[in-house]
Design brief:
The chain is 33% helix and 31% strand. It is of the alpha+beta class. The longest helix has 16 residues. The N and C termini lie far apart (46 Å).
C-alpha cells in the first residue's frame, strides 16, 4: 500500500495524457491520391474514462471515409482516436470528435464513425448490467444524392 498513491498518480497521468493535445495533429501522414472509393477500418480497440464516474468504458471503433484527393496512413487514425480517448470523455463526444478530426484533416467526401462500448459505470454499479453495449455514430460530408447514403455507410460500418 505504501506505493499505491504513486502508482495511482502515474496511472491517471497515462489515462489522461490526451488532455490539452490536438488529436487531429496525429493525422500527419497525408498523401495525395486519386482514390475515390470507400476506405474502411474495422474493430479498432479503444478505451476511455467516463467523465461522470471516472470509470472505464471500452470497446470497438469503426471508420469509413471516402477520399477526396487525400488519404492518410492507417495508424494515424488510431493515434488520433487514442489521443481523444485519453481524457475524461463521454462516448457521444468522443465519436463526434473523431469524425470531426478526420473530416478537418482530409476533407473527404464522407466520413462515418461508429463506436460500440461497454461502460463499467453501468456494468459494476447502478443498474449492474454487464455486457450491455452502447453504440454511437457520427456522419460528416456529402450524404445527399451525389454522396453516399446513410444506409450504405451503415452497411460498411457493420462489416
Amino acid at each position: 500500500m505504501l506505493e499505491t498513491p504513486s502508482r495511482v498518480s502515474e496511472m491517471y497521468t497515462e489515462l489522461f495524457s490526451g488532455i490539452g493535445k490536438d488529436a487531429s495533429s496525429e493525422i500527419d501522414a497525408i498523401f495525395d491520391e486519386n482514390y475515390t472509393d470507400p476506405v474502411v477500418l474495422h474493430r479498432l480497440r479503444f478505451h476511455s474514462i467516463c467523465e461522470h464516474h471516472l470509470l472505464p468504458f471500452f470497446g470497438l471503433a469503426d471508420l469509413v471515409y471516402v477520399p477526396n484527393g487525400k488519404i492518410a496512413g492507417i495508424s494515424k487514425f488510431i493515434r488520433c482516436l487514442d489521443v481523444l480517448s485519453r481524457r475524461p470523455q463521454v462516448q457521444e463526444r468522443l465519436t463526434s470528435q473523431w469524425a470531426d478530426a478526420v473530416s478537418d484533416k482530409l476533407a473527404p467526401r464522407v466520413v462515418a464513425v461508429r463506436l460500440q462500448a461497454e461502460h463499467l459505470c453501468m456494468s459494476i454499479r447502478g443498474v449492474e448490467k454487464p455486457g450491455t453495449l452502447m453504440t454511437t455514430m457520427a456522419f460528416r460530408g456529402d450524404l445527399g444524392s451525389n454522396g453516399m447514403r446513410k444506409e450504405e455507410l451503415l452497411r460498411l460500418l457493420a462489416g
